[in-house]
Design a protein that fits this description.
Layout (H helix, E strand, L loop, with lengths): L3 E6 L4 E6 L23 E2 L6 E2 L3 E3 L9 H13 L4 E3 L7 H14 L6 E6 L10 H15 L4 E7 L8 H13 L3 E7 L3 H12 L5 E7 L8 H11 L3 E5 L19 H10 L2 H17 L3 H10 L8 E2 L4 H8 L8 H10 L2
Parallel strand pairs: 5-6, 5-12, 6-7, 7-8, 8-9, 9-10, 10-11
Antiparallel strand pairs: 1-2, 3-4
């Protein structure tokens, strides 16, 4: 009988089974082509003790649109390839994902080897950055994950009733002092809000160590500009979100039916002449390097100043392999110039 770890969710009678990892018979062991000793170098988040793999694994689909077994296989493969940064969110859609990740951490006994990141403020359970919602969101994630501490907490700026940033950071300070949160980061913040947060930090409140912003070859604005300048001035690590522009840069909209229906309409709006030009250049450079288009889109980001790790998910082991190959690709000066010209 195969040993397993079972987790039952008190929220929705969910049983999560995590098979023990058998290195000798694992069907994907070594398939990614990276041994731990040869994995890409980890990148440092400034002013922290965190060193992370240059690709954050977005896990909010795990256990939902990505079935549990495939989710576990991807977590195992990501870790085998040197990956150690797992990103989730405090939202109802991520409940099963966090439960599955927690069960996997216990089954693999690898909590100390993994950097857990989550986001508060953008979900429907505890929307916004009111102190009560921040605390409730963090506590809910900790309970679902079955851990005592979140290593990196992103504060998501969202529309709605504005909350004084001083109040939000005050709640975060209490969580840090309680040992529930290690470091904090901004998500979707404007340059002005980043500056405001730095002023408050100078007066004793927790300081941002990183910033997350929608950023890709297809969407360089608004990050490039005042947000980038502010982030660089403060020494913030950059974590690009939507690095494949909802699949447009992954070559998944070529009529093969692989793009999720949930994002098809958004993709259609993005398929204008400029994006076709960008995709054409990405495809050509990908062919030159013998890698998928998604690999080149991620590699371009990793070559940008202050970028530590793009944040993106995968729906299959093949997609994950393409993403994890990016840190091993070195784009030439000509490649970078061609990609920059294509985005103008």
């Amino acid at each position: 009988m195969v040993p397993r770890t079972v987790t039952r969710s008190s929220e929705a009678a969910v049983e999560i089974v995590i098979p023990e990892l058998d290195q000798a018979t694992s069907p994907f062991s070594g398939a990614i082509g990276i041994q731990p000793s040869a994995a890409p170098a980890r990148r440092h988040i400034p002013d922290t003790d965190l060193w992370v793999f240059p690709l954050a694994l977005g896990a909010r689909r795990f256990g939902r649109t990505v079935d549990p077994r495939t989710s576990v296989d991807m977590l195992d493969r990501y870790r085998e390839g040197g990956g150690n940064l797992i990103d989730t969110v405090d939202a109802v859609v991520a409940q099963r994902s966090e439960q599955l990740i927690g069960a996997w951490l216990r089954a693999r006994r690898c909590r100390d080897d993994v950097v857990l990141a989550t986001t508060v403020g953008g979900g429907t359970d505890f929307p916004g950055l009111a102190p009560a919602n921040i605390i409730a969101g963090v506590d809910a994630s900790l309970q679902r994950l079955g851990v005592e501490r979140l290593d990196l907490l992103f504060m998501r700026e969202s529309a709605g009733v504005p909350v004084p940033l001083e109040e939000s950071l005050g709640a975060i300070d209490a969580l840090v002092q309680a040992g529930k949160v290690g470091y904090i980061a901004a998500s979707g913040f404007s340059a002005d809000r980043l500056i405001e947060a730095r002023v408050l930090a100078a007066n004793g409140l927790p300081r941002f160590r990183a910033v997350q912003s929608s950023y890709s070859l297809a969407e360089r604005v608004p990050f490039e500009g005042s947000v980038s300048v502010s982030a660089n001035a403060q020494g913030l690590a950059v974590f690009p979100s939507s690095p494949l522009n909802h699949g447009v840069l992954a070559g998944s909209t070529r009529g093969d039916g692989s793009i999720p229906a949930s994002v098809a309409s958004r993709v259609a709006l993005r398929l204008n002449r400029r994006l076709h030009r960008i995709r054409s250049v990405v495809d050509r450079i990908a062919a030159d390097h013998g890698v998928p288009s998604a690999t080149i889109a991620i590699a371009w980001l990793l070559a940008r100043r202050d970028v530590v790790a793009p944040v993106t998910g995968a729906r299959s082991l093949g997609e994950l392999q393409s993403l994890m190959a990016a840190p091993r690709v070195t784009l030439t000066r000509a490649d970078m110039l061609d990609l920059d010209r294509a985005t103008l």
